[in-house]
Each structure stands twice: as C-alpha cells, then as structure tokens.
Batch of 2 targets.
Target 1
Amino acid sequence: MSLPADDQELIRRLKMGDNNAFKQLISSYHPKLLIVARAIVGDVFAEDVTQEAWSSIYKAIAKFEGRSSLSTWMIQIVSNEAKSRLRREKRHSSFGDIDEVRPELDANSFNGGGHWVNPPSHWDINTPELMLQEDQLRHCIEHTLTILPENQKAVFLLRDVEQHSLETIAEQLSLSEANVRVILHRARLQLMKTINHYQETGEC
Amino acid sequence: MLNCRQFTDLASDDIDLQHTGWKRLEIRAHLMICRHCRRFRRHLDRSRQTGAALAQQLWRGDDAMADMIFSRINPSNSGK
Ligand SMILES: [Zn+2]
C-alpha cells in the first residue's frame, strides 16, 4: 500500500513550496487529521483545531526532515494543536483512559471452561480483495467504520491504516499503551462482527 | 493453559506481535491444537485488512475540500 505521504516526489514538491502539492496533501489527509482531532478535543473544536494544524504544517513543511514519516509528523502536529486547545478550554479529553479490560465477544460464544460453543463459521468470501468487490458487504463495512466511536476510529486509523507503532499512538492520543490495545481490539472485533454477519446472512 | 476465550482477548496483540517469551509460546501452542481459534485469528486479521483498505478510500477529501482549507491558510488567498 503506497501512501501519498510516503511519496518522495510529493515531499520534494512540498518542500519547494508547491501549492498544488500541498492541496493534494490536504485532500489525502484532512479527514484523517479531523478524526484524530475529534478523538482528542471533541467534535466542537475539531474543525478549528485541524485548520490550525494545516496552517502549522504549511509553515513548517519546508523544514520537514523525514526523521519520521510525513504521516506521523502531521498527526503529531494536529495532536499537539488539539491538546493545547484542550488546555486552553480547560476541558478534559473526550476520552480518558478506559477501565474495562475485556472487550466482549458475544457472551454465549464460550462455555464456562472458556471453550467455543459457537465457533467462528467458514467465510465464503475470503480475501480483502473479494470482500471489497461485493457491493453490499462494502456498504456494511463502510457503515461500521462510520459509526465506530471516535476513539476506536482514531486508533484504528493510526494503527491499521497509517501503521504507526502502538507506542506512538499512545503518545499521540494521550492514552496508555494498554488502553490503545484494548480500543484497537474493539474496533477490529466490530469490523469482524459486521463481516461475519454478512457472510452468514447476506445483510448488514 | 490458555483457553479459547483467553486467546480471543489476546488475538489483536498477537497480530501486532506484542507477545514475547512464555506468553508467545502459550499462544503458538494453543493455535497449533485449536482450529477454531486459528480461524478466529485469520478472520480478525482479514477484517482488519479489509477495513483498512476501505478506510483508506473512505477517509479522503476531494479538491473542493482542499481548496477551501487551503484558502484559509495561504495569506495571499482570501483567508485570515
Ligand atoms: Zn481455541
């Protein structure tokens, strides 16, 4: 998967002050930065914070050194903007650390000894490529992604789409690494549930 | 010894290679003997990949959005 932000040619143009390249960057990343901002500072300030982050990115891009990926660097900037806004507004993070440790599967999946009573069933549509070719399933997954709680959306984005390390994500979102892992597992379980339901019923 | 329910709690961490040492061995040993959990892990991993591929397409902007955001940062444009 080649991300636009890993594109050396794009980075070269960005550093030269090419505004079209910058617009390309905005178009690839704005919704993602917004998800991160929302997870930290909440819906009300997210748009504003992200706009500020773009201004900072624009000013700083000439000095981007490539020590981290462009994605990590931009997320760090929006995360800093969001955290400082949070302090200015004297608000608490929209999601602090969570207490529950175990993301529940259906309670009746296991017996008292922890063995499967309803084991996972066979999936006819088996690979990501095939799943995405199936219009209805695609729609079901899109819906699930859209309604994920903001913290799950952000963690899933940063880990499984942007492929940041768990340690980096914990820092970006001001969470413990253990919490990042629990939230990530929940998001993945939710996606799996959706796909599983479709494989069994042909519906969302 | 690890049971299936415990494995499902650890499956994401296993995918992210977070386990080392004894825990890792325990997980390998369970997967070796349990086809249900092997399938669970495979499904979870594919769900993650499929979701990520779709999210990559879904969470993108377009030219109009980019123009609007850009106009608000570039002082030579109409923005602040
Ligand atoms: Zn098992």
Target 2
Amino acid sequence: MSQIIQRMDENEPIVRYRNITKSFGDHIVLKELDLDILPGEKIALIGPSGSGKTTIARLLMTLEEPTSGTIEVGGEMLWHMQRKGNWVAANEKHLHRVRSKIGMVFQHFNLFPHMTILRNVTEALVHVLKMPKSEANQRALEILERVGLKEHTQHYPAQLSGGQKQRVAIARALVMQPQIMLFDEVTSALDPELVGEVLDVIKGIASEGDMAMILITHEMDFARDVADRILFTDGGLIVEQGTPKDIFENPESPRLQSFLSRFLKGQSELQADTRIAAGTE
Amino acid sequence: MWDWQYARSILPKLLEVIPTTLAATFAGFIIACLLGLPLALAKRSRMKWISIPVTAVTEFIRSTPLLIQLFVLVFVLPQSFGITLSPFLAGIIGLGIHYSTYLSEVYRSGIDAIPRGQWEASIALNFSKARTWTRIMLPQSIPPTIPVMGNYLIVMFKETPTLSAITVVELLMTAKVVGSASFKYVEAFTLVGVIFFILSYPSALLVRALERRMKRSERRGLAR
Ligand SMILES: Nc1ncnc2c1ncn2[C@@H]1O[C@H](COP(=O)(O)OP(=O)(O)OP(=O)(O)O)[C@@H](O)[C@H]1O
Ligand SMILES: [Mg+2]
C-alpha cells in the first residue's frame, strides 16, 4: 500500500477515467470518456446544461455507476476489484476504501439539518475515521475558522445564510482531507451577493495546492482564475480542453465558440432580467 | 333510570382495571414501535425477496380484523404449535403486531420524506450503511412522525375492548361482568365510556399541541 503511494509521483494521474460510458435507459449521457487528473490539479468543467458535467463528478463520487469503462483512483480501480484473478464489480467494502480519497460539495449543500454546524463537520471524523471526539472538535474548529464560521459552531444549518451553509459544506468535506475534491455548481443556488464569499473560500483552498479539484461551474471568471485546465463538455463528450488562456482566448471548436458567446450574452440577459424583476428598469 | 349511588359503588371496580388496560396499550404500542421499524426497512429494501413477502404479509395483517388475529394467537397457536399464551400476553402481542403494520407505514413515510441529498452527502462523507441509518436517516425521519405515533397510541387504547373477546379483563369486560351481576348495564357502560373519554381526549389534545409546536418550529426552519 505504501509502495503504491510512493510510486505516485507528480506525473502519475491520481484519477483515470478510461472509456467511460454512462447511459440512463437508452439516453447516452457520457460517451467513451477518457480523462486523467494529476495530483493537485485544478480542473474546471464547463459546458451547456445536460452535457454530462455532473455525471462525470457523480461517477467518481460513486453516486452513479458507469455503464461501461473503468475509473482508477490512486492507482486502484474504483468500480472493480479482483477476486480469484478475475475483475468483478466492487463490493461495498472496496468502494468504502477507495472512496475515502474523494470528497464532494453539492449545489444544495446537503448539510445535516439535525446537527449543529460543529457536528456536521465532526460527524464523519468520529464515525468514519474513528477519531477521538476532542481531536475531531479541534480539527473542525480549525477548519471552520478558516472558512470564517467560528462564531456559528453551535448554530443549526437552518439558522445560516446560503453562503454560510455552503462554507460549512466545504469545511465538512475538507476536514476529511480528500486527495480529490469535487465541486458541483456550488454557487448556483446562492443569492448573487453571497457567491463571492464562497468562491473566495474555494480560491483559498485551491491556492494551498496539494488537493486535486474538479470545479463544475458557470462562473467563467472563477474558472479562469482557479483552474490549471478547463474542459468543455457538450453532448456527453469532452469537446475541447486546455489552459484558461487557450479556452477563453483561442476557442477552436465552433461549439465552444458559440457556447462562450451565448454564455456571455446569456449572462447579460440574465442581469437585465433580474433588474426588470427587481423593478429597477 | 340512572342510579347515582349504584354508579358510585361500581366505579372502584372499573378504576381497578385501568392499569391493566393502560399496560396492554403501552406494551402493545412498544411492540408495534419496535416491530414497525424493521418492517418499514424491509418493505423499502431493494432486495425483492425481502420486500415482496414482507409487504404481502403486512398488507394481509392490516386488511384483516384484529379480532381474528387474536383468535389465531389464542386458539390456533396452542393447537398447531403447542404454544399457549396467557390472554394478556396474546392480547398485547396481537395488538402490537396488528399496529406494527400501521406504524411501519408511518416510519416509511418519514424515511421517504428525507431528501435524496442527505443520502448523497452520507456517501460522499463515506459513512457506512449502518451509520447512515443510525446517525443521519433515523434521527431525521422519526421526530416528524411523533404526532402520528401519538394518534396511534390513542387508537390502540380505544381498541383494547377487543381484547375482552379473548378474556383479557379490561374495562369493557369488567363492565359487562358488573352489569350482568345486577342487570344495571346503563351505569356500567356509561362509566366505561366516560373513562375512555377522560383518558383519551386530553391525550388527543396533547398530541395536537405537539403537532402545532412541531409545525411552528418547522416553519422557523429548525426542524429541517
Ligand atoms: N438519474 C438520472 N436519470 C435519467 N437521466 C439523467 C439522470 N441524471 C442525469 N440525467 C441526464 O443526463 C444528462 C446529463 O446530466 P448532467 O446532470 O450530467 O448534466 P450537467 O452538464 O451537469 O447539466 P447542468 O448544467 O444542467 O447541471 C441530462 O440529459 C440529464 O437529463
Ligand atoms: Mg450539473
């Protein structure tokens, strides 16, 4: 086990999607996807609605099972395991072990409403990692301080704003020290004035470096600032990928070009709509 | 018609069996609560060989009268399996099993009401299945069902006269015995009615108050 970790140098991907196809019924959502993610790499996924971005993340978080293909995490198969020399579908125990390297933050926070903020963050430390309560509390307090929520440890999720809730959700995932963290449109459910505080927290985490991230987002400025690499998905395919500079300044495929222009236009329309709705226009 | 003095004279006899009646109610309720939860989980199970038979059996029990089930416990069990239960024990078991099928539906609706995101967050944090149930799902799904549970407790209390059919000495049985001794049924049965009312009406008010309080805190967003 330790040998495997040692072999994982900087250039060895921590995640490998190989030939992943996912369909719901006869609707093919991802088509023969290949994707490597390096340790510490920050990847932004952009693309139109329904293009398969969330599905890419959910397959890695084991919330959705691939129809075919394989995913490797840290040199180990995620959805498969070996039994008597044959590859078979992973059982719960195997998933449990490999999944421990992955964390996820959701669009709708999914905090545990019956627990205080502190317990939301300590619960998995205590009951998954079996950490002593005092140590878990200390770790949680450190992380909550980092996301600016030290004053709210004894509150319940319902007493917080959306932005605060999402910062708790980030702390809750972060405290488990995953090697890869998935962020699925974590600001889409927030009021516009609360988006900034959450993005700032994520930027802070990203700048620390060692954790790989997949950021699914419609915030193009944020993607440009944070990502090492941007993937543009459309119709279940990664149509184009490159550095933020490549993607935003030299989009090659017509689909990305039209997405970006539609997106920018859409955004100004959206702003106009909200102004109309607010009665200021 | 109504003989106050006679009524007063039989009252102690009726009051005497209130503990038995309440004991049968609570014991039956506890059985129903304990049995209802695994039934709910089994009915929701993705394994068809568990969910289908359990659903079938609970539907059967729910759709047949309690009285028949009590008779089965008292007459069929000794004959076919050599198990003889005291009337009281048979009574609480029958009551418990019968109402566990109702309570399992209550639990199930509580569990189904939990948003899918809670399951997904539990997986993302790598909670085991068992921990997901004990730390996340059940603590959220049971509190909202408490008022409904309270209503079932009252319903079960009012169902205890059925136990007189298998000779459990509860209120109705006692009234019948007392009444037949003097052929003055009006007083005995009226008192039984009054006792049931005095015990169940305040309980019902209590449950309603509880329900209102929970609705209020839910509106404030504290429950969910
Ligand atoms: N559980 C499911 N059952 C059936 N179809 C699904 C399911 N989940 C996703 N899909 C479909 O798969 C396609 C891709 O969905 P996905 O959520 O990955 O897209 P997305 O790129 O994240 O879109 P958005 O920007 O709207 O979040 C969509 O057409 C969606 O309707
Ligand atoms: Mg999505």
